[in-house]
Amino acid sequence: MLVRPWTDAHAGGGCCGGEVRDGVCLDDRIGTDERADAEVGLVAQAYLRLQRDLPEVDVQIVGVDNTAYLLPSVYRALRTRHGVLAALRGLNRATTAGAVLVDGESVGDLTSLGVEGALDEVRHRLPVG
After folding, report:
1. Which helix (H) or strand (E) holds 121?
2. Closest C-alpha to 50, from 101, 14, 5
3. What is the rounded CA–CA span in Å between residue 69 and residue 109?
4. pLDDT more than 90, % of the chain
5. 127 in a structural domain
6. Contacts of residue 81, Cβ cutoff 8 Å, sequence gap at least 6
7. How far is the CA of 75 from the CAs of 4, 15, 90, 125, in angstroms?
8. Is 129 or 65 the better-scoring residue by pLDDT?
9. What is the pLDDT of residues 27-44, one digit of tens each?
10. pLDDT value at position 8?
11. 68 falls within a domain
12. In sequence order, what are the beta bridge partners of 3?
């Protein structure tokens, strides 16, 4: 799961693509703010690379403001594998803009990891077999 930054949150759009006319993974995005475009562009690049290089992985983009989805999803995934306390600790990291989550666990953020680093982190955590 890629957590989309606040800078791309627009009223009237879906949690994945931002404004209806301005989706995060469309080639012809309408630019509004260079910093926002850079952050959103990084999410889009990571999403497209993960889709291309790891087609077996279910990649989701979720807005950082979509806590109604993020918190229960992350809590369930972490509680199953690590217990209640670890799940509660993981909730804060999951709601960080730019977070890269693999099965609920934060493995870093896109700004630090970059696209290649995110791809490596996801590959490293894929089940063997």
Report:
1. helix 110-124
2. 101
3. 19
4. 54
5. no
6. 103, 104
7. 19, 19, 8, 18
8. 65
9. 555 555 555 567 778 999
10. 45
11. yes
12. 62
Residue pointed to by tokens 């700004």:
111
Residue whose C-alpha is closest to residue 69's, from 88, 91, 47, 85: 91
With CA atoms as reference, report the closest residue to 43 among 66, 67, 21, 18: 18
User: For 28, what's the count of Cα atoms within 13 Å in the CB-facing half-sphere?
Assistant: 2
Q: What is the pTM of this model?
A: 0.75
What is the spatial distance between Cα 8 and Cα 68, in angstroms, rounded to a whole number? Answer: 18
Domain that holds residue 6: 2-122
pLDDT digits (tens, 9 = 90+) for 100-120: 999 999 999 999 999 999 999
For residue 8, is it within any domain?
yes
Number of domains in the chain: 1
Q: 106: which DSSP letter?
A: E
End-to-end CA, the chain: 22
User: Does residue 25 lie in a domain region?
Assistant: yes
53 token code pair: 């290089």
